[in-house]
Amino acid sequence: MQGILHKADILTAFFDILLVAIVIYLLFRLVRESTAVRILLLLPVLLIAYLAAQLLGFIAFTWLLDNFILSIFLILVVIFQYDIRRALLSFSRGMFVRSPEADSEEHESAALLDQLADAAHSLSERRNGALIVVEKEMSLEQYLEVGTEIDAKVTSELISSIFLPYSPIHDGAVIISHGKLTMAGCFLPLTQNPDVAKELGTRHRAAIGLTELVDALVIVVSEETGSVSVVSGGNITSNLESAALRKLLRRMIEPRWLQ
Predict the structure, then answer these.
(1) Which of residues 168 and 117 earns the better pLDDT score?
(2) Which of 53, 70, 189, 247 is the most buried (most CB within 10 A)?
(3) Residues 159 and 130: beta-carbon distance below 8 Å
(4) How far is CA 27 from CA 23, 61, 68, in A?
(5) pLDDT tens for residues 23-44?
(6) If we measure between CA atoms, which residue out of 174, 182, 181, 186 comes closest to residue 219?
(7) What does the alpha-carbon distance between residue 29 and residue 232 come to, in Å, rounded to a whole number?
(8) pLDDT tens-digit readout, 170-205
(9) Are strands 217-221 and 228-232 parallel, antiparallel or unpaired?
(10) Cβ 187 vs Cβ 208: under 8 Å
C-alpha cells in the first residue's frame, strides 16, 4: 500500500514540475508573440488552473500561480499603461476648460493627419506601395536598421514623391516624429508571429513587426492592390477608404504626439 502511495506521490510531483515548465514556456511565448488582449484572455484560464492545482496537490504549480496572481495588478498596469494614460488624459480634458493653445495644437495635428490621409489616398490611386510610421510615446531609434535623415514639414506631396517607384528610398518607411518627417528609406523589423496571414506582403509584415515592439502607428499602402491599412499593437485594419482612414487616425493619434 505504501509503495502505491509513493508511486502516486512521484507521479504527482512529475506532473507538477511538467505543468510549471509548460506554463513558463507558454508565458514567454505569449509575451513575445501576442497582444495585450490575448494576455488578458489568459487570466481566467490561469485562475481555473490555480483552483485545480490546489485540489490535486500540485505544490510547485500552486506556488508559481500564487506569485503570479499576487503580481497581477502590477502586470496589468504595465500591459495597459498607454490605455490607462489615454483614459486619464481624456478624463482630465473633460474636467478642465480648454486653453487656446490646446485648441491650436489640436487644429495643427488634425491638419497633419489630413496630410497623411491625402498622401495615402494619392498613393493608393497610383498603387505605389508605402509605409508611413507615426511615432508615439516610445522611441523608434533602436528598431530602425537604415534610413536617410530628413527634417521637413509633413505634406502629402512630399510623402507621395518619396514613394514614387524611381525614388531611391521608396522601398523603406518614412518616420513622422513630433510633427516632422524625420527619416525616410527605413527598414523595419519583420514580425516573427506564425499566425500572421500568409497573403500579407513584406510591408504589412514590417508594420506588424514594428508595432509588436513599440506603440507606433503605421499606415500601409499595398503596391499590389492599392488598399490602405492601419497597423497598431500588432493588429491590422485593412481596406480603409479616405474618410474612414481620417476618422481612425484622429481617434488613435493624440495631438501631443505630433508636437
Answers:
(1) 117
(2) 53
(3) yes
(4) 6, 14, 11
(5) 666 655 555 444 455 556 666 7
(6) 174
(7) 20
(8) 888 999 998 899 999 999 989 888 888 888 889 999
(9) antiparallel
(10) no
For the four alpha carbons of 39, 208, 136 and 251, in that order, the dihedral sign comes to negative
Lowest-confidence region among 5-9, 136-140, 142-146: 5-9
- 186 contacts 174 by C-beta, under 8 angstroms: yes
